[in-house]
Automatic annotation (TrEMBL), chain A:
Pfam families: DAP3. The keyword Ribosomal protein applies. This is Small ribosomal subunit protein mS29. Belongs to the mitochondrion-specific ribosomal protein mS29 family. The gene is dap3. InterPro entries: Ribosomal_mS29, Ribosomal_mS29_met. It comes from the Eukaryota. It is found in: Mitochondrion.
């Protein structure tokens, strides 16, 4: 697989619109300049980069997204050996709002909504990448639906007997949280004493890292540890003495107010409110804390008891969810525009993903447009066969 | 000589056979000349048959032109089809075709077409025939009141409309059970109802009300006679009107879930936004109630209220979502 980035001569102009003559002979220099941009820092991207792909450094991919990227995109990254993401208007809109956030004001909530496969999770990942490069603490819940279905172990909570714990999901999340936020773990100190059992407790003033380790090693208490972590971060962010800003990113936020498929021992359904993880996450979703932002996405793909065709906020969140999230800023993520489609097509051609010569013709392109309706995920799947 | 005779007889036979069957023996002799009597006896069967065949062919006159050829264009059609009659191809001067088309061809023509005869036709009810019916009925009718010349005036003076159907048919009985159904329709705007009464009426009535045309339709068919059903429908209307004006004690327990429309005052949305604004310290200094009043009076908050109400009442689509987004951005000063 060609690494065209490395073959470019060092003279690179901002936006990469210069003709690259040192590029290998098989691909024309023109497409390279149109669909790629050299601006890999999300903070510096602007409208002129719309539709262009920027590369995520592989170190960032390992740390920021241990569990956040969509499955098919992860496979694509492995195949192409690079992680390229398209710069699209919804992401830049939220990023520009994030740049202007005031630390003293309550957290603003953003909600990405759109048709199935239109790129909501990818937009969320782009925003998270921005937050990471700016040094924010990222609290990323990759798929809230995983917490309300397919639970193998359900323990009654020791902290509050009416609630239920999910140790496996909690430990996995804590592990990934640790990978993403290594630098903060030693800086943030707890403000409260937590008692886990008669013999184990976490003293006041111990670092966040210790708290997280406690949760990972002692699996039984992991859900409560998650709750403690969220509470600490919520209380401390925005305070004058703490120097970090908190970004809460939740994918599939409609799971928090929907129904769950988990059943209790007596075969009655568990309300999501009765799950510790969901209960604590809901507290984070409220905008009663300052110094950060809450960026969320709706997801129908993993949702239970929802229609396949619903994608609008009120339908997926329900009355309760909408009232809890209100007021929020809904950001629509549409299918690819013509320019974005061109860019994606050229990218796949450049990566030799479109194998057949028919797809290089105008007719082939029209066929792709017709079959996929410019829906990003459909296009990706269809190009695999073309 | 024999040949001559035969020839003569032949001609004789030919002339006489169509008319009369008298020269049986002659024809036999004519055809069996040169054959012995024995053979003639032997071949008795076939000439006999042939003779019978020839004889059963009675005189048949050729069918003439169909009547349609002789019909003038400006004839009186009501005379051709005065009553409901099956389709007669020769009496209808139209080149109608009906049925399954032959492959690569057209549907079969009307002559001898059973399909056209099977179906009911309305050739006896042409506009000219209807005009004649109306003229015949006119002596039994009264004039339409001249003051009621527009639909609006009719609605104003006669808001209740009663629709009934009566049936006439020839059969052993003149009664038709479908004639007892009575539809009573009235516009709710013509009834004197206040807000509470209107909402109660809508809840009582349910499906019988059409939101687009604001018409309440009561259908009565439970009594055997039309007059009884009409009385029952009027009674129902009266009862509905009076009941919707009454306020029961338990109506005070109406919850948010029972409300027909979303009202923003006192809702969670209002609490949230006021909470947020207070925390953002937008209002400046002040005590609880005043602060709330002041915040509510702001233009952005009013816009936000409108957008949320519209979203909840109308449902969501792109335009309502965009309006909500703009309103939230303004309120949160982004």
């Amino acid at each position: 697989i060609l690494h065209l980035n490395e073959r470019i001569c060092p003279i690179k102009l901002f936006g990469g619109s210069q003709q690259q003559e040192a590029v290998a002979a098989e691909s024309e220099p023109e497409p390279l300049s149109i669909f790629r941009t050299q601006e890999n820092d999300p903070a510096c991207q602007s409208e002129k980069h719309f539709g262009q792909y920027y590369t995520l450094p592989s170190a960032h991919v390992r740390t920021v997204f241990p569990h956040g990227l969509p499955m098919r995109y992860k496979q694509q990254v492995k195949t192409f050996n690079e992680a390229c993401m398209m710069v699209r208007p919804p992401a830049l809109e939220v990023i520009s709002s994030l740049k202007k956030t005031d630390n003293s004001k309550p957290a603003v909530r953003y909600l990405f909504y759109g048709l199935k496969g239109s790129g909501k999770t990818m937009t969320l990942c782009h925003t998270i990448h921005f937050c990471y490069t700016q040094g924010w603490l990222v609290l990323h819940v990759p798929d809230a639906h995983l917490w309300v279905k397919n639970c193998k172990e359900l323990l009654p909570s020791s902290f509050n007997s009416s609630r239920y714990d999910q140790p496996l999901q909690a430990t996995e999340w804590l592990r990934n949280f640790r990978i993403t936020n290594e630098p903060f773990l030693s800086k943030i100190k707890t403000k409260q004493r937590y008692v886990w059992t008669k013999r184990e407790s976490t003293e006041e003033g111990s670092t966040l890292g210790e708290l997280v380790d406690q949760g990972i090693t002692r699996v039984k208490t992991s859900s409560d540890v998650v709750g403690a972590v969220m509470k600490e971060l919520r209380l401390q962010s925005g305070q004058p003495e703490s120097d970090f800003r908190l970004a809460v990113a939740v994918d599939g936020v409609n799971a928090l107010w929907g129904r769950s498929t988990i059943r209790k021992m007596n075969n009655t359904a568990v309300d999501p409110e009765e799950l510790t993880l969901v209960y604590n996450l809901r507290k984070l979703m409220k905008n009663d804390w300052t110094g950060g932002a809450i960026i969320t996405t709706l997801a129908q793909t993993g949702a239970v008891y929802t229609s396949k065709y619903s994608y609008l906020p009120k339908e997926l969140l329900g009355e309760k969810g909408f009232d809890s999230m209100d007021p929020f800023i809904p950001v629509s993520v549409p299918n690819y525009s013509e320019k974005e489609f061109e860019s994606c097509y050229l990218y796949y051609m450049d990566r030799h993903w479109l194998q057949y010569p028919h797809s290089r013709t105008e007719d082939g392109k029209k066929e792709l447009i017709f079959l996929s309706n410019r829906n990003p995920s459909m296009l990706e799947r269809i190009c695999g066969f073309h | 000589m024999a040949a001559h005779t035969s020839r003569a007889f032949l001609s004789l036979g030919r002339i006489n056979v169509p008319g009369l069957g008298l020269h049986k023996s002659v024809s036999r002799v004519t055809y069996s000349t040169g054959l012995s009597t024995d053979s003639s006896k032997a071949t008795t069967g076939s000439p006999q048959k042939g003779g019978k065949k020839v004889l059963s062919k009675k005189y048949k006159r050729e069918p003439g032109d169909p009547r349609t050829e002789l019909m003038p264009v400006d004839q009186d059609w009501t005379a051709v089809y005065p009553v409901a009659t099956p389709f007669i191809p020769d009496a209808i001067p139209l080149p109608v075709r009906m049925g399954c088309p032959v492959k690569g061809g057209a549907p079969p023509e009307k002559k001898g077409n059973l399909e056209l005869i099977k179906i009911p036709n309305f050739l006896h009810l042409t506009p000219a025939a209807i005009k004649k019916h109306c003229e015949a009925l006119k002596p039994f009718c009264t004039e339409w009141p001249s003051a009621l010349d527009t639909d609006a005036k009719c609605d104003e003076h006669f808001p209740i409309k009663v629709e009934t159907k009566s049936y006439v048919s020839a059969g052993p009985s003149i009664r038709n059970p479908a004639a007892r159904i009575v539809h009573l329709s009235v516009k709710l705007s013509s009834l004197n109802l206040n807000d509470q009464a209107r909402k109660k009426m809508l809840k009582l009535v349910g499906d019988r009300y059409c939101k687009d045309t604001d018409i309440l339709t009561i259908t009565a068919d439970r009594c055997p006679l039309k007059q009884q059903n009409y009385d029952y429908a009027m009674y129902l209307l009266t009862v509905l009107y009076h009941e919707s004006w009454k306020i029961e004690a338990w109506e005070a327990e109406k919850t948010v879930a029972d409300m027909e429309e979303y009202s923003w005052e006192g809702s969670l949305s209002q609490e949230n936004i006021l909470d947020v604004l207070v925390r953002m310290k937008e209002a400046g200094e002040g005590e609880g109630e005043e602060v709330r009043e002041q915040l509510l009076g702001r233009r952005e908050v009013q816009e936000y209220k409108d957008s949320v109400t519209r979203l909840k009442n109308e449902g969501e689509n792109e335009s309502t979502m965009l309006q909500y987004k703009e309103a939230v951005k303004k309120v949160l000063k982004l």
